[in-house]
Task: structure prediction
Amino acid sequence: MAPTQELVDGLRARVKVLGTRTPQELRTLLREELLKLVGTDMDRTVRTEPEGRKPGIVMVVGVNGTGKTTTTGKLARVLVADGRSVVLGAADTFRAAAADQLQTWGERVGAHTVRGPEAGDPASVAFDAVKEGKEMGSTSSSSTRRGGCTRRPGSWTSWEGQAGRGEARAAR
Result:
């Protein structure tokens, strides 16, 4: 609650000092106050490149109704269009339609979706999604008859987590 109170207090003080009268002026002040709180100097780059043999992982966390599923679906679409293979892990096992919604996104964009049982353990879904992403991203080298696996370049894993519940989305 502290950031919200800080925002409201700062906005009220600026309105009093500047004598803001119109909704447009207020919106401008609100925008300035929000930008001051989030810090525009931070690096907000979404890093999806794998590190060595590990897949790239993105975890998306937020409260209900903030667009996590839609954002994750759109990010998956961009990555698939970029030639990556994507695994989405539907670990929001408490919201009835969450896994269905994510699976629909996966089907639309060409991504594989890992699901768990309704009201199941979200962490286990996240674990299974990463495990499956790793398995799908590796190929046995039959030409050299090695038992080991090698990762294809550009593999990526993403998570989406709902605060306190764990809605995970893994894309590889």
